[in-house]
Write a structure and sequence with these properties.
162 residues, alpha+beta, 38% strand, globular
């Protein structure tokens, strides 16, 4: 069983553990440039700052009954596009991908807004989640990130106009 809730300060160390996972999705957060074995420790205060300033529109966590954070999603500006697009970022523990739609359903996409989401080429389950939400693959950025073995991988760009 999982529940979805707003992100709280006490989620900080639990998010650190989630983003440190290896052997799963390589592109963990486009917004915070989290790739591979990532450290979310310094990103969390930046997330809180962005939440308080309103630049992160929405952020949610998915928790187990014991309080473990097994998913994180956020919606904010897709940096570099001068506010013309938003980015949906999400990271989910591999054992909880089947429940990820609950986390994503808690992120309301603003009507009429262009929204991007990014995933690495091996994250087929993430791509399926995006396609299930109505996102379409718009681009492939060739050989842009590395896995833990320094193998270059493509980044897939998905888009949706809510």
């Amino acid at each position: 069983e999982t529940t979805v809730a707003e992100t709280r300060w006490e989620d900080w160390p639990k998010l650190e553990a989630l983003y440190a996972l290896t052997g799963h999705w390589q592109l963990k957060s486009h917004h915070f440039q989290q790739f591979g074995h990532a450290c979310f420790e310094s990103a969390y205060p930046a997330l809180r700052r962005d939440m308080e300033s309103g630049s992160i529109i929405c952020t949610r966590v998915m928790r187990t009954e014991t309080g473990a954070v097994v998913g994180h999603a956020m919606l904010g500006p897709d940096l570099g596009w001068r506010s013309r697009a938003l980015a949906l970022d999400f990271m989910v523990h591999p054992g909880f991908v089947p429940q990820a739609h609950e986390l994503l359903d808690a992120i309301a996409l603003p009507n009429g807004s262009k929204v991007h989401a990014y995933c690495d080429e091996r994250a087929t389950d993430k791509a399926e989640l995006l396609e299930g939400m109505g996102f379409e693959r718009e681009a492939t950025l060739s050989k842009l990130i590395e896995d833990e073995n320094h193998v270059l991988m493509d980044v897939l760009v998905y888009g949706n106009t809510a």
